[in-house]
Amino acid sequence: MSVAVLLIAHAPLGQALLEVTRGTLGNIPVPHALLDVVRDTEPGLIRRRARDMALSLDQGDGVLVLTDIYGSTPGNIACALQDLEQVRIVAGLNLPMMIRVMNYAQLSLDELTDKAVSGGHDGVLMVDPIKNAEYCQHA
Which residues contact 48 (CB under 8 A, 6 or more apart)? Predict the structure, then answer.
């Protein structure tokens, strides 16, 4: 068994991140599901759908919910799952976070949550052409 991942994001962001992750790694090594949120989504219905998805994804090791913007509709839907014991929620979904999570699929729920946060955080930086000359020259 392993921790499952539920993406809750503004459409089509989640699908794009899954496609790039699959293309980069060759596969998605953890059980996962995507809940696309569109503008005219009925909040009560989609919250129930998110809960059903989280419960069905959990194979005993928990579910890591990754969402794009804290305080947005997808973020609020994710936060509605916080009462589930085996669910952790991380907002600020980005590609470095996704790659980090998929590279550490064997970790526990709490460890994977930490990796998601560090991957998202560490993947955001200002590129300085002087400090990063060896990378910037290859562009």
Answer: none
pLDDT at 138 (0 to 100): 55
Q: Which of 88, 77, 17 is nearest to 52 (CA)?
A: 77
Domains in the chain: ranges and CATH: 4-136 (3.40.50.510)
How far from 108 is each of 61, 87, 111, 126, 131, CA to CA, in Å? 7, 12, 5, 31, 36
Kindly report the CA angle at 37 between 32 and 39, in degrees rounded to 5?
170
The 10s digit of each residue's pLDDT in 35-75 is: 999 989 898 999 999 999 999 999 999 999 999 999 999 99
